[in-house]
Amino acid sequence: xxxxxxxxxxVMGMLLLSGCAHQQTLKVDNADQPYRIGRxxxxxxxxxxxxELSRTVPVRPDGFISVPMVGEIQxxxxxxxxxxxxxxxxxQPYVQEPRVTVIVREVNSTRVFVTGEVAHPGAYPLRGRVSxxxxxxxxxxxTDFANSDGIVVIxxxxxxxxxxxxxxxxxxxxxxxxxxxxxxxxxxx
Length: 189
Known about the structure:
By secondary structure, the protein is α+β, with helices and mostly antiparallel strands. It contains four helices and ten strands; from the N terminus they run H-E-E-E-E-H-E-E-E-H-E-E-H-E. It has helices at 2-18, 80-91, 132-138, 167-170; strands at residues 42-47, 55-58, 64-67, 71-74, 100-106, 111-116, 122-125, 151-154, 162-165, 185-188. Strands 7-6-10-8-9 form a five-stranded mixed sheet. A hairpin with a 5-residue loop joins strand 6 (111-116) and strand 7 (122-125).
């Protein structure tokens, strides 16, 4: 009976120590990522020596594009090279040794969202590498009631999770800035 009780309290202690965290905290990864096609981007699909299959196509809100002979194919989330390979595979029954190139003509999908106690909350386009500090500046800076040391970046890149950030760490000489990714939401409490 004593062993059961000890086991019960051990399990209960572990559960209590684990807490009830619903979101995992992410490690900051500022490495460059390959460009992933997103909804509302515009693509040039070129099939070598076949002008009738080559065209400019928008990525629809559902993430698909429509291409002759292939039909509908998922584009959002793929790199241009991955999409070109998928189109090549889809064209093989109709075209002998198809050579497909995908070029992103217009980037319309990469945005970050800044909300909470900033002067101008909203969606902001990501053009190149944008840091958290730059996104806060784009949003007009903090309001008088902002808790600048309680900032959270919510990352929705498939892994989910939150990155807690202190503004005082961002502006310190040894502080590391967070490079934002498409779809990130910056919350300033």
